[in-house]
Amino acid sequence: MKLLRALVALTVAGCATAATVVAHHSFSAEYDAKQPITLKGTVIKMEWINPHSWIHINVKNADGTTTEWMIESGTPNTLVRRGFTKQSLLPGTEITVEGYRAKNGANRANGADLILADGKRLFLGSSGTGAPKEAPDGQ
Amino acid sequence: MVRGLTAAATLVGTVLAGAFVIAQAPAAKEAKPAAALPRTPWGTPDLQGTWDYRTITPLERPRELNGREFYTEEEAAKLEGRAGRRMDGPPESIQPGLNHAQYLTDPGRRLAGRRTSLIIDPPDGRIPAVTAEGKARQARLPNRGASGAAVSSWLDRGNQERCITYGLPTASLPTLYNNNIRIVQTPDTAVIVHEMIHEARVVPLDGRPALSSKIGQWIGSSRGHWEGDTLVVETTNFSGQQNFRGSTTGLHLVERYTLVAKDRLEMRLTVSDPTTWEKPWTVLLPMSPTEGELIEYACHEGNYAMFNLLEVARDEDKANAAKPAGGESK
What we know:
The complex is a heterodimer. Chain A is mainly beta. Chain A has helices at residues 2-8, 27-30, 76-81, and strands at 31-47, 54-60, 66-72, 94-102, 108-116, 121-122. The longest helix of chain A has 7 residues, at 2-8. Chain A is globular and about 35 Å long. Chain B is globular and about 75 Å long. The longest helix of chain B is centred in the C-terminal third of the chain and has 19 residues, at 304-322. In chain B, a hairpin with a 2-residue loop joins strand 3 (180-186) and strand 4 (189-194). By secondary structure, chain B is α+β, with helices and mostly antiparallel strands. Helix content of chain B is 17%, strand content 21%. Chain B has 2 domains: 7-17 and 33-68 and 117-321, no CATH class; 72-110, no CATH class.
């Protein structure tokens, strides 16, 4: 189920009708769609860089040590339009990230979903919350 | 399905309210400047500001529409509903090659006035036939940046991946994100700043001649003038180091910017390159104002992607080298 969800979360450009479908770089050259990963950690810093922001987090390992991970994220404008501010991910913020790991096993991931400590999901919300512009279910 | 952040929805709502709410009626084909539009102190239309040209209308008309120019209201509602859900919730299907996380992209959620293609000429809504010479040239193009492309060196990657340029007309057409330009005007100059990818095109409006044909530039050289209330920008002198679908140094672009309402700027772009396409083609792209400034494209400084994909490729090389000869297991 989790894998299914992860796979579903994988797609992006649903409306690949976008005129010139050109992304900055190839997902498949860097990340492994077969390696969905969930990381829980605290924010070290967030780099607001075009065309991809990066979230650096410390992830606590089972043995008590921590490992630094880099999470690839959206363009600054994309994030701002979705409500992100510079205050959203201050250092020390606890987050859970779901994404896809680097093909070579490095501690990097392409982020797909981000969950705050209070359970609020950024970018992938549940349906039926009545927010403006919400599309009806089942269409 | 929805985003958790009310602020996000509010912001998006604000952007969209100014955006494609003024859906162009199917019958309204010509851009006619309305009265009382903002003007500069020197009298020209004031196009200044940041403009958002996100749209889910594709560049070329899908063949299955058999040349139909507009979607029906019902079709449009369905497509826009799907695009909205894509932005607000989990994706509906997986598209190999576009496996970026959902929140990395921002392609919009509205059609361009229910149009089925951004191309309005030729009437079939598609890029004209490629010449024989153009086809041969396209066949020689390196497979850069695409899935399966070589990763021996950064030189194997495309110019946009290397943070060099998106090129033209690519930078003027909608893509997966950062579909924003900023226009600044003076009496004798217009500047068009593209968020993709840190290009500031300084367009003289003073009637000076074109650059010598001996000079080629990555994004060409632009000259502009006003035709009535339309800003016309002509771009030539391409170096050919960046091409659009195999275009050459003969690429010739004419952009026509017309303010048709306070919150709607229309750009008509005519692309020609006689050795590449059998005839010119024209795009109609509506834009709406958006708040804020463009965010700088500090691509090189933050281009972890290049390091990452080269590192992955070298690790794969090592793994392959470590395999016993002839011992391919799969």
